[in-house]
Amino acid sequence: MKELLDRRRLWVGGKGGVGKTSMSAALGVLAARRGKRVLVASTDPAHSLGDVFASELGDTPRRLLSGLDAMEIDPDREVEAHLARVTAQMRRYAAPAMMDELERQMRLSRQSPGTQEAALLERLSRLMTDDSLPYDLVLFDTAPTGHTLRLLSLPEAMAAWTDGLLAHSRKSEHLGKVLAHLTPGSRRDVTSPFESEDEAASRDQDPRTRDIAETLLARRRLFHQARRRIQDASHNGFLFVLTPERLPILETARAVASLEEAGIPVAATLVNRVLPVEADGGFLAARRVQEETYLARIDATFAHLPRPRVPWLATDVQGVPALETLADCLENAGF
Question: Full-prediction pTM beyond 0.85?
């Protein structure tokens, strides 16, 4: 398990309320303790990473400990930046009379389904593919499982959408050329017999069409590159946090199966809040009997994955001292 923190990117996910954020922060503390340069980035719109560190976090990395930075990616800010780029691009091609309608459509897009996820995906893709980042390890504290699975599957959907736009652009351009050739008095360029079809298309292409195509291709390359990296088990891994209870086990099993089917490496499951052996009393004794049943079920369901266990702490995890204690627990569990 120690090699898990040697990867470049580690995603920490799971059902809501199982302790993903606390584990992400504690893993960051542990990695920094070992001399790594670490960024913990929260992608959950309901941010609590700053609460766990007892520090105010924003959309840019903030140094919290030696070697450890943290940030909370703001989905609304990403949407605004995304739509601003789209609007600026469209201004170059749209007629002035169309700008009022264009800006109205952009305002409506802010609330459209998928806009936030698409903007967040673009930010995450840049984080995943930027080799100039000054970090040895980027830990992604993700949103609950369903949101994360949609986010990780979005590159394929966005790439398909981009391919469709490019195909539509090529068809429109071809139709325009045909109509131009059929128009009386139009000038028909003669293609050299030594010129390839692609070279001729590039020569004849309208600059606006070429700019749009280049923008779409750059976006498609970004998503494909991010997808390749997230499937690279030598540099990327997904860690599922769960508790020994029925619903987290069921949801984690579905999520692990979905990621493995998509070719995304699942590195381990982390069983959180296991009753410590010293906990006593009749109530806890009854809970322990039930817990043993669920721990056995976890061992059977995720037999092909490492399953380290972390005990339930007596206090809330908030602030660096508590995270240091939790990091000790992770180290004792094999990290």
Answer: no
